[in-house]
Amino acid sequence: MRQYYFSFLKTLERLESNIAFYPTLISLGGVTFAFFMIYLESIGISRYLVEAAPILVVNNTETARSLLTTFIGGLISIMVFSFSLVMILLNQASANFSPRVLPGLISNKRHQVILGIYNGTLLYSIFTLVSIAPHGDKYQMPGFSVLLGIIFMTMSLGAFIYFIHSISQQIQVGTIMDKIFKKSQARLLKLVESEKHLETDFEDTANWNEIMASQTGYMQDVSLNVLGTLAEEHQLKIEIVPIKGAYVLKGIPILKYKGDVDDELKEKLLDAVMFSKSELIEDNYVLAFKQITEIALKAMSPGINDPGTCINAIDYLTELFALRMTKKNKSFYFSEDDEALIYVRTVSFEQLLYNVMAALRTYCKHDIIVVQKLFTMLQYLLQNREVLRENYKESIISEIRNLKIDALANHENEADIKVINNIIKHLEDLNPSDYKFDSNT
C-alpha cells in the first residue's frame, strides 16, 4: 500500500508539471459551478433576491445577453493573447538560454492558475448564456448568475494584468537563474539534512545479483522508503546502479541485491524506480548545475556575447558548489538500527566540478574577466571550511591547475598574463599546504 502511495505522489508531481493540469481542473470547476447555479436558478434564487436585494440581480434580458456575449468574446481574445505570450516566452528561453529550462517554466503554477481562471470564466459565461431560455412568453432570467459572471470577469481582468507583469519578469535571465538556484538549494538542503553522518563501509557489490531495467527513460527518482521497507522485510541489501537523472536503457542493470528474491519481489523492487522522459530539478539537484552552466555558455556565444550573464551564473554556481561540499559523496539508506541497507550512487563532487569547469574553460578561457571570476570561485571553495571533506581539496586544486593552463595558453597580452600569474601567486600564498599550482606537481 505504501508503495502505491509514493507512486501516486510521483504521478501527481508529473501531472503538476504539465501546463494544462491546473487549467483543466479550474475549467471543470467553472463548468460544475455553472450547472450548480443553473440548478439554484431553477428553484428561484434570482426571484428571491429580486425581492430581498434587487441590487444583486441583473433583471434585464438584453443587458444580460450583451454582457455575457461581450465577456465570451473578450475572454477568447485574452486567452489567445496570453497563450501567445507563453509560447514566445518558451521560444525565447530555449533560444537564448537553454532548452532544459523549459520544464521549469512550463510548471509555473501561477501562470497555469491564471490560464485556468480565463477558461473557467469563459465556460461559466457560455453555460450561463445558454441558460437564458424562453419560458412561455417570457425568458427565464438567471440574474444572480449574470452578476457572478461580472465578478468572475473582473477577476479575469485582474489576473490578466498580473499575468503581463509576471511574464515580463519570467523572461529575464536573472529570474530564471534565481528560480533554478532556489529549487536546487532546497533539494540539496533536504538531502544534507536527511544524511546520517555515520562512517559506513558498504559491502563489495561486484558479485551481487542484478535486476535489469524493464523500460527506457530518465531515472527520475527512487522511492527509498519503499525499497528500504522491502529490504528490511526480506533481509536484503540493495545497490541502485545508475545515478539519478541518468538515461537508462532497457535491459541494463538498474538494481543489485544480496539475498533471496523471487519474481514477484523483483517486480515490487522495480516499481519503486520512477522513470520519466523529462528532467526536473526538484528530483535531481545536478540538473541545476547543468542548466546554469548552459546559460553561462550560451551567454558567451558570439551570437549573444553577454559576459555579464556568465559572471552572474558563476556566482550562482559558487553558492551551489559550496552547499554541495556539505554533502557526502556516498549516500546510504539506513534502517532504524543504523544499518546501511541501500547504497545510492551519486555524482561525486570531483566529477561535478570537472564537468562544469571543463565546459566553462572551453568556452570562456579567452575572456580574462570571466577567467578571473572562475579563479575567484575556486579560491572561495578552497577556503571553505568543508574543503577537507571527501578529499574535495585535491579536486579544487586540480581544477585551478587546469584553468591556469588554459588561461595562459589563450592570452598573449602581457597585462593579461600578469593578472593570471598574480592570481595564482595569491592562491599559493593563501594555501596553507605544500600544493603548488604548476601542471607538473
From TrEMBL:
Nucleotide-binding recorded as keyword: no
InterPro entries according to UniProt: DUF2254_membrane
Pfam families in the cross-refs: DUF2254 (PF10011)
TM ranges: 20-40, 67-90, 111-132, 144-164
Alphabetic keyword roster: Membrane, Transmembrane, Transmembrane helix
Superkingdom of source: Bacteria
Protein's UniProt name: DUF2254 domain-containing protein
